[in-house]
Specification:
This protein is α+β, with helices and mostly antiparallel strands and 151 residues long. It is built from two helices and three strands.
């Protein structure tokens, strides 16, 4: 096939530009991974519960409130109570963790696009082996069947 026509050259140029843009996107996406700030896996939310004591305020509808960290460990979701005074720190570290996870998803999507562009560029550049001329019909594959060269 090859890149011969003006239309093909324009298309190939656009593909090059797309590939360059996607490569630059990757640098932006992976930027959070260069940080050495600690992260905490999971999600933070408020848990409201009843304790079960008959005279407690929760029995009348005023549930107990507690901030918890929910995270998967070995395939099971675990809840951990966040100690008083640590909520903001834990939320910040969880937020950083979630940013890393979103970046991974974005990276996968950009990678898929890069592969598509590269495949298209390769297909445009690919040529077939030229057909032999009639006068060349006696030429054999090197070291193939019928190779008559002296050893």
């Amino acid at each position: 096939m090859g890149i011969k026509t003006t239309t093909d050259k324009k298309k190939f140029s656009q593909l090059r530009q797309s590939l360059d843009r996607l490569a630059k996107q990757i640098r932006q996406i992976v930027e959070p991974f260069f940080s050495d700030k600690p992260v905490i896996k999971g999600s933070v939310y408020e848990l409201k519960t009843k304790c079960g004591k008959p005279g407690c305020k929760c029995a009348k509808g005023q549930l107990h409130h507690r901030m918890v960290l929910s995270a998967s460990e070995k395939g099971k979701t675990k809840l951990r109570a966040i100690p008083r005074g640590f909520l903001v720190d834990v939320q910040t570290k969880v937020s950083c963790y979630q940013e890393l996870r979103r970046a991974r998803v974005q990276l996968i999507e950009v990678h898929k696009k890069i592969v598509q562009v590269m495949d298209e560029m390769e297909a445009m550049r690919r040529e077939k082996l030229p057909s032999p001329k009639k006068s060349d019909h006696h030429v054999r594959d090197r070291n193939g069947p019928g190779d008559f060269r002296a050893e």
